[in-house]
Please model this.
Amino acid sequence: MGRFYITTPIYYVNDAPHVGHAYCTVNADAMARWHRLIGDETKFLTGTDEHGQKVADAAAKHDMSPLDWTNQTSTRFREAWDALGISYDDFIRTTEPRHYESVQKFLGAIYDNGFIYKDVYKGLYCVSCEDYFTFEASDNGKCPIHGRDLVEMEEENWFFQLSAFEERLLEYYDQHPGFVTPDTKRNEAYSFIKGGLRDISITRTSIAWGVPVPWDANHVFYVWYDALINYLTAIGYGRDDDEVEKWWPYSNHLVGKEIIRFHCVWWPAMCMAAGLEPPSHVQVHGWLLVGGQKLSKTMAAEGGVRLTDIAPVTLTNEFGVDAVRYYLLRETSLGNDGEFSHEGITQRYNTDLANNLGNLVARVGAVVTSKCGGVGPRPIENSSLRRDAEIAVDESTAAWNRFSPQGALEATWGLIGATNAYLEAHAPWKLEPGADVDAVMGDALEAIRLVAILITPAMPQVAEEIWRRIGLGSTPTAERFDVSASWGRYPGGTSIVKGTPLFPRIASDS
Ligand code: MSP
Model:
């Protein structure tokens, strides 16, 4: 038994949750559920990033105080995660007192260690990024990410001496080859460090919506240096050293590729400066993009649909929660960009879910009802399907453990395909009731039992429903994985429940 601490970025509350946020959160959720399934002590943290200019602007635009605005929008994130079956253990808001305390203690420690000093900052600023750019790094004076005009800013700031950590960071990377995955993103961060690090400004006087700097009342911490610390606040930094010690060595940050610098350069250096080890792992994921395809009639907006216009609940209403989760996990491997389209999700739904998984469960239910008196037979110990099952368990285990929900589901679908082929080959529906039919159906039920366990992290509700239909009590997660995920544990002798189709087909032109 191990330990697993997983975090998502904390999302800005300037906007409503959309499918891009859901992509990251569902992946983190599946990873958390996987680790709980294999018996690891697990903590899953998500939350909202509530300070900074962008949020203050959004509040002003809606004629609300920043706090009223953040209360409202933060709630929308929780609602979206409830709708997607997200099993977070803690939801952090950066406006909470516990966070103020941790931020002030953490940055206070860096200050006490002599890595923070005062200077004047002058530069080009993008409010959307909440970040400064040099002219060279800008797109001719415009933000390279948002395309908006950068604003010339000058202010007296407290600086973090990032430059002092260049060597130590490179050393850390060399000694921890798995610190940032995938390798392409690790190399990107590494080259950035090798290119030379400049000190960074970490406070603001131009805005009041932030955590006050304890040693200088005119300043608040710049939103990013407040935000990153959330990962420590949630495990008690400054309040409970034992908790920090317990979880920090098992920390995994799942982050989008646009925030690599913050998580793979600034953050480990800040941890070092505060006298802490860097987080143990950063898993970077790519972006979901919409290629100008109309998503659906209800989502259509003039001039096409942007990903940020799609609320996760619009999708769960149309396809069901677990189908949306499946699509987000299966379609795009963590690290690559992916295309999000209505056609894509419909196709995955109809092929993988309706035709493969749904059909397997339905036909087994039907044959057991008509040929086995509705009672599931036992599997055969040395069934030819056993090998396929063992490969699926081994491969999906390895894939989950290397942060590849996509690979894990692919391996699981290998078993679904093999079981459907096994049924086709033996055609039990053509046989008279008796030992031959029982043997085939026992094996198929055992394969379905294993599939239900393996899909639990991705599709928890469907997994439980399949479990119920094959006549098993309790839940697919009740038993320890290393015991339950081996061939031959379907007990036989229990009544099968025939139900309505798990995934009724969806017309592909909707
Ligand atoms: N508040 C900062 C993060 C601070 S973490 C200490 C932030 N917030 S955000 O609201 O902009 O969310 C960024 C994250 O949302 C990305 O890193 C990514 O995980 C997710 N996504 C937002 N749009 C996305 C896509 N189009 N595709 C995939 N993920 C996307 O940055």
